[in-house]
Amino acid sequence: MAFESLSDEFIEGLISCRKHVENPKAREQVKPGHKQFNYNVQALDESGHQFMLYTRQNTEEGMDDDFSCGLLWLASNGECLTLCRYNGSAHIHRNKLEHKSLELTCHIHRATEKYIVANQKPEGFAYPTEKYRTLNEALHCLIKECCIEGLMSGSTRANQIDLFT
């Protein structure tokens, strides 16, 4: 499926379908400048959709606000699409099509049909949020808003493990 044919309704359906983490005890990957976790996620409906959930935290001194967590859809043709990304406040984001910048604030990226059609990063649009300040809080929001089960984020006690304590 070419991403150019994806509608906002289809994207929202991917985000809102119930999902389950298949590897809640994934190992931390330490890379130059950051640490990362990658989780395999499966749709719980008959669609068979597969996703990847990731968290990434800058490990440099004083960079606690430089983090990201996101949900990618793994399309059946082998391509992947970032559906949403929850970023910290460490950088300014510019919504290219709207010609508007978000200053140093936490923000949420969402894939949109408008950005796909304009041949921009599908998740290039972002909006500011005060729902979180830390990676663990951002992950909690992502889990809740993307209907993901089977992973504990510190604020979610109904799931299996705690990631960052």
Structure description:
With 165 residues, this protein is α+β, with helices and mostly antiparallel strands. It has one domain (3-149). Helix content is 15%, strand content 35%. Strand 4 (50-58) and strand 5 form a beta hairpin. The longest helix is centred in the C-terminal third of the chain and has 11 residues, at 135-145. The N and C termini lie far apart (40 Å). Residues 155-165 have low confidence and may be disordered.
Topology, pairings included?
Blueprint: H1 8-16, E1 19-21, E2 29-31, E3 34-43, E4 50-58, E5 67-74, E6 80-87, E7 93-95, E8 100-102, E9 107-110, H2 113-117, E10 125-128, H3 135-145, E11 148-149
